[in-house]
Amino acid sequence: MVKPFWEKRLHGTVTSPLGFYASGMHCGIKKKRKKFDSALIVSHETCVAAATFTTNRVKAWPVLHSMRSIKAMKHHAILASSGNANCVNGLKGKQTVEEGVAEAARLLNVPTEEVLIAQTGLIGAPFPITRFKRAIPNLVQKLSRTGGHAAAKGIITTDRSPKEVAVSFNLGGKTVTIGAIAKGAGMVHPHMATLLCFITTDVAITKALLRRALRHAVDDTFNQIAIDNDRSTNDTVLCLANGAAGNVLIQNVDHNYRMFREALEAVCRMIAYDMVRDGEGVSHVCTLRVSGAKNPTQAEKAARHIANSMLFKCMLAGADPNWGRIVAAVGASGVNFNYNHFSISFDDVTVLHNGKLKVLNLPKARRVLQKKCYAIYVVLGNGRGRAEFITSDLTTKYVLINSAYS
Questions:
Q1: Shortest CA distance to 15 belongs to which of 179, 158, 139?
Q2: Looking at 194, 200, 221, 391, which residue is catalytic?
Q3: Given a cut of 80, is residue 225 above it in pLDDT?
Q4: Mind listing the domains of the chain with CATH numbers?
Q5: Which of 33, 281, 318, 338 has the fewest CB atoms within 10 Å, i.e. the most exposed one?
Q6: Rounded distance between C-alpha atoms, residue 297 and residue 303, angstroms
Q7: Given a cut of 50, is residue 39 above it in pLDDT?
Q8: Which residue in 166, 167, 150 sits closest to 40, CA to CA?
């Protein structure tokens, strides 16, 4: 395995890049005082920003606000909260966003359009605007270079743990860093980013190329995962780049841009994998690798159909190597394949090779599926297209969590 050019920081977070400060705390949105429910990320330097948002036609107030604000040429901060989605709750919800952003901007002494906002939680509930606004001065006061972990705690909902990572690498003689925090757990299905994820970097790059790199990274990571088949109203990925590392500005699609894009994708991939592993009720994580399709689009279509099949997910939950579920899902996807060259493997255990069943390997395949993490390889035998998708099992615990969410 080729060693990546970037170095992962074991305790990295959004404050690992130079010039970024963060904080998190309990403000009263969540009932339990020990649970953080608000966060603030601020750059000392002016940033360029990029974002992707949910494609659900029902969009929460913070999404609508940030979709407008992201068009500004510079930004300074991200204000966030958890425990209430601030969605489908009337004009009071819009007022909450506007007043919260205005208060943060006033205290940070920056224009309101330079503050982005994201919120997550229960849909349709009145938002406790007074408690939220009252917490913002404390969030500003608590800002620190070590506050990334607190911010990560401030955005999670049913997650079992915060998700945060950072990578550093040499770019044109300068050490640069990309850091991220995220929340996921449920309502995780592609067609945007399917989560809240905040990314910071001290790389100097133009807004246009940051947007291009982020879109590419999101498509290849967050859009290739699934826990369930539901798409949230609040999904948001925000990325701030402040240039504090002092590298030569990336303004062309050159070697430096490609290095940055690869590292950004690596950060998103690590977060995406952690999201699936920490999904609601998840006990098994499966990396699905489909190859031999006519083209990459066909491979992705087949992988997505397998990954989202309820029967396939139940197969994973029961550690049952019922390869017929996979064949049926591929057939239902509408993708062309050659059954005489069709193969399925569970890690390194092949159960179907060129359309011929390896009966003696089924017990070995069952042992593979009993592991917490593994890969399933599907060869369609119809070309060179390939795709990778990360999915999970469907368990009783998932049903129990979501049958009593409110």
A1: 179
A2: 194
A3: yes
A4: 7-277 (3.60.70.12), 285-402 (3.10.20.340)
A5: 33
A6: 10
A7: yes
A8: 150
